[in-house]
Specification:
Keywords: Sigma factor, Transcription, Transcription regulation. With 174 residues, the chain is mainly α. The chain has seven helices and no strands. It folds into two domains: 85 residues, Rna Polymerase Sigma Factor, Chain: A (Orthogonal Bundle), CATH 1.10.1740; 69 residues, Orthogonal Bundle (Arc Repressor Mutant, subunit A). The mean pLDDT is 86.
C-alpha cells in the first residue's frame, strides 16, 4: 500500500497494536459489558479507518478514544432501550425511578467540583491520576510511560487523592 490510504492504514494498524487493550478496558468499564468490549473496540478502529480524510487527523489516539466512548455510549443506550421494550409499558402505580431535578443538579455540581479538584493537581500528579483512574493502567505501566518508579506512582496517587478529598470538603460559597 502506498500513498495517503496506505499511510493511514499503517497508522490504524499501529494504533490497534498499541491501544487495543486499553480501548477494550475503557469500553468494558463504560458499558459494564466486558463480553462486548472486544467487538465494540473493533468497531471504533473500523470507524477510524473509514474516515475519508484520516491523514488530516492531528491526534489519532485521542480521536480513537472519543470514538470508542461514543460507541460505548450508543451501546448503553441501545441496551437500555432493549430492556425497556422487554419490560413492557410502565405501570402507573409505580413511583418514578428517574432522579429528581435536585439530585441531577447536585450530581452535576459534585462532578464540576471534582473536575476542578483534578484540574488543580500538579501536572505530573494529574497525569498519574488520570492514567490510573481513567485509562486503568497499572503502576508499572504508568511509571514506564512517565519515566518514574512504581513507588513514585503510588506517591502521586496518594497525593492526588488527598488533595481531591481536601478540595471536595471545602464548603461551597452560598
Amino acid at each position: 500500500m502506498t500513498g495517503p490510504v496506505g499511510t493511514w492504514a499503517r497508522k490504524i494498524a499501529e494504533l490497534f497494536d498499541s491501544h487495543r487493550l486499553r480501548v477494550e478496558r475503557v469500553i468494558a468499564r463504560r458499558t459494564g459489558d466486558p463480553q462486548s468490549a472486544g467487538d465494540l473496540a473493533q468497531d471504533a478502529f473500523l470507524r477510524l479507518a473509514r474516515l475519508p480524510d484520516g491523514e488530516a487527523v492531528q491526534n489519532p489516539a485521542g480521536l480513537l478514544f472519543v470514538v470508542a466512548d461514543r460507541i460505548a455510549l450508543d451501546h448503553c443506550r441501545a441496551a437500555k432501550r432493549q430492556r425497556l421494550r422487554e419490560a413492557g409499558p410502565p405501570d402507573d402505580q409505580l413511583p418514578a425511578t428517574d432522579p429528581t431535578a435536585d439530585a441531577v443538579m447536585e450530581r452535576n455540581e459534585t462532578m464540576a467540583r471534582l473536575r476542578g479538584a483534578i484540574d488543580a493537581l500538579p501536572p505530573k500528579t494529574r497525569d498519574v491520576f488520570l492514567l490510573y483512574h481513567v485509562e486503568g493502567l497499572p503502576y508499572r505501566a504508568i511509571g514506564e510511560r512517565l519515566g518514574i518508579s512504581p513507588r513514585t506512582v503510588e506517591y502521586h496517587l496518594r497525593a492526588a487523592l488527598e488533595q481531591c478529598r481536601t478540595h471536595m470538603k471545602r464548603r461551597l460559597p452560598r
